[in-house]
Amino acid sequence: MTPPHTPLRLGVLISGGGSTLANLIERLGDGRLRGVRIVAVVSSRGAVRGAEIARQAGLSLAIVRRRDHADADGFSRAVAASLDAAEVDLAAMGGFLCHWRLPTRYASRTLNIHPALLPAFGGRGMHGRRVHEAVLTSGATESGCTVHLVDEIYDHGPILAQRRVRVAPGDTPESLAARVGQAERELYPRVIQRVADEGVSILTDAHAWRDFA
C-alpha cells in the first residue's frame, strides 16, 4: 500500500450551499478530522454560498462554470487543471452537480456522497430534494447516505460505505433530509480520515471497505 502523504491534500468540488465543505472545515478546525488539508475548492457556480464559505476560510477557490467552456471535455479539463495546480491527492465531491469526465489520474481517487442508499434513488437529476421525495413516494422504510468512488456514470462507482436512516411516519422531504444530512456529516469525514490514515490506494481495496460504516 502506498504510504499516505502528510497531510492528505484534499480538493473539494461544490455547486451550491457548501454544507459538505463547511462540515469538513469545522472538523479540521476542532481536530475531529486530522492529517488532511483542503488545498483546492472548485465551484461550478460563482454566486453560491459554498464559494463564500471557501473565501471566508481563506481557501484556494476556482470558479469553473460549464457555460464558459465549449463542451464537456473542455469543462472537465478545466476542473482537472484546477486540482492539478494544487497537487491534490484526493478529490471529494460535495454537491457537485456537473458531469465531470474524470481523467485517468483521478479515476481511483475521487469520492462522492449521495443522500440515499445506492444503487436505489441515484442517477442523472437525482439530487437534493428530488432524492428524498422519491424515497418517500416509494414507501421505503429506510434511507441513508452512500460514499462511493466516482466513475463516468452518475452515482454508479464502487460503494465504499453507507449509513442507514429510518424513514419515520409522517416524514416530509425536509425532515428526512435533515436526518440524512446528519448521517452524511458523520460518514464522509470518516471515509476521508481513513484515506488520510492509510493512503489513497485503500480506495481500490474492496475488502478493506466491507462493513465500514
What would a concise description of this structure say?
By secondary structure, the protein is α/β, with parallel strands linked by helices.
Give a structural overview.
- 33% of the residues lie in helices and 20% in strands.
- It is an alpha/beta fold and 213 residues long.
- It has two domains: 7-106, Formyl transferase, N-terminal domain (Rossmann fold), CATH 3.40.50; 113-195, 3-Layer(aba) Sandwich (Rossmann fold), CATH 3.40.50.
- It has a seven-stranded mixed sheet, sandwiched between helices.
- Helix 2 links the parallel strand 2 (36-43) and strand 3.
- Helix 4 packs across helix 5 (173-198).
- The longest helix has 26 residues, at 173-198.
- The protein is globular and about 50 Å long.
- The two termini are 22 Å apart.
